[in-house]
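Practice problem: predict the structure.
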Amino acid sequence: MDTQTWIYLVVGLTFALYLGIAIWARAGSTQEFYVAGGGVNPVANGMATAADWMSAASFISMAGLIAFLGYNASPYLMGWTGGYVLLALLLAPYLRKFGKFTVPEFIGDRFYSKTARMVAVLCLIVASITYVIGQMKGVGVAFGRFLEVEFETGVMIGMAIVFFYAVLGGMKGITYTQIAQYCVLIFAYTVPAIFISFQLTGVPFPQIGLGANMADGTALLDKLDQVVTDLGFASFTDPEHNTLNIFLLTMSLMIGTAGLPHVIIRFFTVRKVSDARISAGWALVFIAILYTTAPAVGGMARLNLMNTIQTGPIGSPEGNLEYENRPEWFRNWETTGLLAFEDKNGDGRIQYYNDANPEFAAEAASYGWAGNEMVTVDRDIMVLANPEIATLPGWVIALVAAGGLAAALSTAAGLLLAISSAISHDLLKGMFTPKINEKQELMAGRIAMAGAVLLAGYMGMNPPGFAAQVVALAFGLAASSIFPVLMMGIFSKRVNKAGAIAGMLTGLLSTVIYIFVFKGWFFVPGTNWFPNTAEYWLLGIQPESFGAVGALLNFAVAFGVSRVTQAPPAHIQELVESVRIPRGAGMPTGH
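Answer:
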């Protein structure tokens, strides 16, 4: 059986499973649509949370970032996992104790203000839409390659599938689908990693293989450093960014994790407060399996890619791969537009090097090279292409295809549900049309989800960066707007509605403006200046790291405004005190 047939078979079977679960577990009430009826087993919920969390950014893009950034990608590992500690200890049990369906509903009740609830909805939608763009990018990458269609067509196929099972099943369908998706994606991620680690080092555990020696006695990481630096690229193991950026990016991702609405809502699906803590613990275990494997996947993928193209001594006539003899995997990825070659010196061979490095560029010119000829190497292809580059069996390649799609679709579904519930439950039911019945609210939620799918799909076709970079921006938005107000709502009796509203708007707007300006989306009229270069960053802080600064501004403004305005009513202060003592909780009421 050839590889493409394996792909159709494995992907088809997994999708049939997902759609079958969606039909079996379709939501019949708003409680099932929003919180899966509130009776999910904590271990199962931990698995579903892990699938919800391990998005296209984790499965597809994180190892791609590690492959090209090396040590400098470590904040993504630390931030995305460390945030779960904050979530389990500081937020999940208390929000579950409060017993509401959504984050904006908690904020509206805690700060006794419909305006606060509306601002929370705005923050939630901005962060979630930004996040889901990254998922749609991952969906397009996976479908584009494995169905042999263009990237944009792949996005549209993904839109149709996630629309079907998310709109039909709501949280109930999504929960059980995500359990299945976790099993698929973790098996798909670890099996190829085991194969490749054994192939390169003889060690079957990739976590150990990354630090092991290769057959010639050279340490794998030393070999990788030599390969990339010999071609003018930055060392894989040496830090490049300044310490402040690394710290702020890690912090932004960490508190952004704890403030993500689609993750927080998962803890409303269990029966009681203790189950919320158990769910968070199990989720961390399930996530750790993938996150401890990712550095090995990234490092080994980069080594295999470079060795495939650089076939002999650098600068020698036979040192580079002949374009006409390029392997099948190379041809397959060229059809997606995510890998592209341009023969700049007309020698028919592929020169892949860092022509932005002036020292090596001068050396390369002496070889007759006229510039880097790999004009497009999308980092998001690395995990999916890795088994093909390593010439693994067709069924392994098919498994990775299914896993990548499972990761992207599971998180996209959770995000779309968060957006849907914010619009239908918080805006319509909670504020504008409180008298609508359950059936009308359910229909409104599904219509809102359909609109979110269309918007996310369009933005996914025109993303502002790699999947993991887009997701990092979403985490920054969640960190600067949602996390601080949740923390203050739980642990401070003095913060009032004026402070919460001012803090959320300050954190959100400061971060959005910084991102828009320094990601090159802001044009200065009358000039040719797009200030999207590092020389203009405030104190050298990159846009992906600014969420932590926005969070500090949020806290400062909220406390400052609260100090000069009237304290919260006595019954709200008593409510805060009761939420901090999680002695049990009933079913979420949604009222």
